[in-house]
Design brief:
There is one protein chain. By secondary structure, the protein is α+β, with helices and mostly antiparallel strands. 16% of the residues lie in helices and 23% in strands. Strands 7-8-9-10-14-13 form a 6-stranded mixed beta sheet, with helices on one face. The longest helix has 20 residues. It is globular.
Length: 350
């Protein structure tokens, strides 16, 4: 059987980045520091929200990997050694969701030799967590997608964490774009609204990257099987958004017209990006075993041919099946040690 031109994996990376501590909301109408609480976590205030995404080659193979790391609990940072997920996946592009001032992307790149291109915002509109992308494939273009850039409104401030993207050249010479985002978490009305706006903006970024071969991915903090919301369509901005939150004029106009569907998956499908179905080797769909939920997704443009997909659990290494990986497998408990989310690998041909 012939191998695909490029193999990518949206997966849980194990590079242990420190997260930011969560502070209680600030009262008043001035500048409000954004407070992140994992929408799937319990009341434990120690939950972290670090994520990253990698695309790498499988060594000695004509295949490639794309990897995504999602939320990790703070106590896991005390692990005495690094699990071997990175070597096992060996990706070409690393998109980080959760880098902080204490561990900026250039420092991460130094720990992963060969990643010569780093794109990351110097700051972030809400909270301490940043998105970033590292690449070792040739990069055609890269972009930090600010609210102003996506909306065309210079005063807009409506994205929780600015999406980041790279357009790389695959070994075949074809272009492949990767957009990574970590959607707003939390359970309040404002969190629900902002999660939908994040989806609108990441869909816009995916359509603006310059190629039809696009993968958008990240911790959506929602499930595609969630029941219909109590408010099917947004026609207003909730009053409990942060004081410096400002919806872009384009989406504000939509609120005053037909409204914005209260579904984080609708903007993705409207942009022509379909959810990639990935399962664990044992057949389960969940990506966060602690709560039994599927929160982490890859959305693929029709310009990308999906060859295979897998939710990776190191405990399943003894089972037959799954995507081909590089080198020796990590320890059985490596997935648990790395994060409370599992890896999702997607093999693609751009």
């Amino acid at each position: 059987m012939s191998r695909p031109d490029v193999v990518c994996a949206l997966a849980l990376a194990v590079l242990l980045l420190p997260g930011c501590e969560r502070n209680p909301p600030t009262a008043g109408t001035g500048t409000v520091k954004d407070t992140e609480v994992d929408a799937d976590a319990d009341a434990d205030a120690d939950a972290d929200a670090d994520t990253d995404t990698d695309v790498r080659p499988r060594r000695h193979r004509a295949r490639r990997h794309l990897e995504h790391r999602v939320a990790r609990r703070r106590e896991l940072r005390r692990v005495p050694r690094r699990p071997r997920h990175p070597r096992h996946i060996d990706a070409d592009v690393v998109a980080l969701n959760g880098s902080t001032a204490s561990r900026p992307p250039p420092g991460v790149a130094r720990r992963r030799p060969g990643y010569d291109h780093v794109v990351s915002p110097n700051d972030n509109p809400f909270g301490a967590l940043h998105n970033a992308v590292l690449a070792r494939l040739p990069v055609r273009t890269s972009q930090v997608w600010t609210s102003a850039l996506l909306s065309g409104d210079g005063a807009a401030n409506d994205v929780t964490r600015w999406p980041v993207s790279v357009e790389v050249t695959a070994p075949s010479g074809a272009a492949l774009a990767v957009v990574s985002e970590h959607w707003k978490s939390g359970f309040t009305t404002a969190d629900e609204f902002r999660r939908v706006v994040d989806a609108q903006r990441v869909a816009e970024a995916a359509r603006a990257v310059g190629t039809t071969a696009v993968l958008a991915m990240g911790d959506v903090n929602a499930e595609v099987t969630d029941p219909p919301p109590s408010t099917p369509t947004w026609s207003y901005v909730p009053s409990d958004v942060p004081g410096d939150y400002r919806l872009g004029a384009d989406l504000a106009a939509d609120l005053g017209a037909a409204g914005i569907p209260n579904d984080v998956f609708v903007p993705m499908t409207d942009a022509g990006l379909d959810v990639v179905t990935a399962k664990q080797v044992d057949g389960r769909l969940l990506t966060r075993p602690e709560s039994g939920r599927r929160l982490d997704y890859v959305f693929a443009d029709p310009g990308v041919r999906i060859v295979g997909a897998e939710v990776y659990d190191s405990a399943d290494e003894s089972l037959d099946g799954g995507l081909v990986k590089a080198g020796d497998p990590p320890d059985r408990e490596a997935s648990f040690v790395a994060s409370d989310h599992l890896a999702v690998f997607v093999d693609v041909v751009p």
